[in-house]
Amino acid sequence: MPGGLLVAMDRDPAAASRAEALSAEFGDGFRFVPGNFADASDPLAALGRGEAPLDGAFLDLGLSSYQLDDSRRGFSFAADGPLDMRFDPGQRFSAADIVNSYPERRLRQVIKDLGEEPWAGPIAAAIVRRRRQSRFTRTRELAEFIGGVIPRKRWPRHIDPATRTFQALRMEVNDELGSLREGLEVITSHLKPGGRLGVVSFHSLEDKAVKDFLNVEAKDCICPPQQPVCTCNHQASVVIHPPHPPLRPGKDEVELNPRSRSARLRGAIKI
Ligand SMILES: C[S@@+](CC[C@H](N)C(=O)[O-])C[C@H]1O[C@@H](n2cnc3c(N)ncnc32)[C@H](O)[C@@H]1O
């Protein structure tokens, strides 16, 4: 669009170098802002285009293939690397810090809630026992250890036995749900009337956070249903679009790009 500006944000500084190619192609029409989209208010204000400058915003959540395929980043259980998983290497806590220092109860909760792992209890207990002898430092070491805790005949059919625990650790390291909840508020507040929000998520808890946020934002009153008179004065700020349920990839797309299989797209239009 002539005069338009596409602002791209990523917490991972490595995305900046890929963004350079887009800068070269689109010139003044493209800008890369390093950082968490939950902190988008200041960079958006700095554009000098008013309080609600966005015609549209699209959140493509989770992990990129670049991150997953670079074993040095420590996201992959398939290729050996340091137990890291930070989107931004400047963050304080890595996956190794969590695995080697969280109390057993908290570790179990993280693996159960964020990984939806039925074996969270035995995995957390075994990690805590083993780390008394030596710390976990490598991804393959942890993945093989988890494979040894879950009885082989109970391994999940289509995924590695470490998949759910690795997902939980990544989400905890990067506080992905916290950033998402904050980011949705911030980004929606900067949309113009008629501006569109799209969010593609890859995890049921992320999708639930998006759904819950949109359901609240689309309502004129959020008082408890048993309350006879509204006291919240809440006003709908969006219309959900496309309507529930979320859009999912078709068979052809999953065949072409298997990593899209768990994607869910939800969206809204600002009132
Ligand atoms: C599914 S990938 C999207 C990749 C992107 N569409 C591309 O083609 O390079 C998700 C990306 O979002 C980034 N990310 C995740 N949570 C973020 C957040 N709260 N703020 C900014 N970036 C985030 C990750 O670092 C990752 O690069």
Structural class: alpha/beta
Number of strands: 6
What proportion strand?
5-15%
Question: SSE order, as H and E?
Answer: EHEHEHHHHHHHEHEHE
Major beta sheet, specifics?
A: 4 strands, mixed
Q: In whole angstroms, how far apart are the ends? A: 23 Å
Average residue pLDDT = 95
Low-confidence stretches: none
Helix content range: 40-55%
Identify the overall geometry. globular
Hetero compounds: S-adenosylmethionine
The order of strands across the largest sheet is 3-4-6-5
User: Which radius of gyration do the C-alpha atoms yield?
Assistant: 21 Å
**Count of helices?**
11
Observed structural traits:
single chain, 271 residues, alpha/beta, two-stranded parallel sheet, 11 helices, binds S-adenosylmethionine
